[in-house]
Amino acid sequence: MHRPTVHHLDCAPMRPLGGPPLVAHCLLVVTGGGLLLVDTGFGSADVADPRRLGGMFRRSMRPGLAPERTAVRQIAALGYDPADVRDIVLTHLDLDHAGGLADFPGARVHIMADEYRAAMRRETRSDISRYRPAQWAHGPRWVVHDTADTDWHGFAASRVLRSPDVLLVPLPGHTRGHAAVAVQQPERWLLHAGDAYYFHGETDTRRPRCPRGLSLIQRMVADDHRLRLAQLERLRELRRTDGVVRIFSAHDTREFTALGEETGRTLH
Ligand SMILES: [Zn+2]
Predict the structure, then answer these.
(1) Structural domains of the chain sorted by starting position, each given as residue range(s) with its CATH number in brackets
(2) Which of 176, 184, 257, 262 has the greatest number of beta carbons closer than 10 A?
(3) How far away, in angstroms, is 268 Cα from ligand 1 center?
């Protein structure tokens, strides 16, 4: 059977108050040397003890926690060995992205330096609620990327892997060291834009739009709201000028479904 090189996993469906349902879009990338995961959603320990996510988050975002939703279980269900996940690349360390880390204790965990510092320091009230140290209490093998000196389609980037090329592309705003993750495919690039935006309409090049509830949530949780909007404009510009990059958000349901169907067509 031909195997697609990228699988799209939803590891944390959410039903936020006042907004449409969201996914937590994670990528499983089959590389020459094993498996690479982009973001991790919630993990087994979050499912076993949802209190570690905090009451505010659970009440407002209403995550659907189930063991079979975790990345580790979905990877096994696809027929892979979760122990083959050698690298995890995180867009940022928010609790709905970093929850699965402990399910892959042997993996290298790639993160931008600004994000690593913000999450370890937790200096503001909002940082205290978004970053949950229990999710990395096992001591991951951090690989902290402090330079972005590679050019990727006009963006500064930091290389994670070659063959396929995987790069961290800093897009701060949602959090201090938030980044997108670019993954090369045979004829195009995937750009997992993390939480740079939540709704597909936001990257529309002619008439950007977002449901009001989701706009409010994004404004509320942004570390730097204006900076996030400026980065979003850069993503629109990339869409305008570049036909080979497929951009998608961590949380948009429509983009997740469309990409899953495209991947499904490669299965035979
Ligand atoms: Zn998120």
Answers:
(1) 6-265 (3.60.15.10)
(2) 176
(3) 33
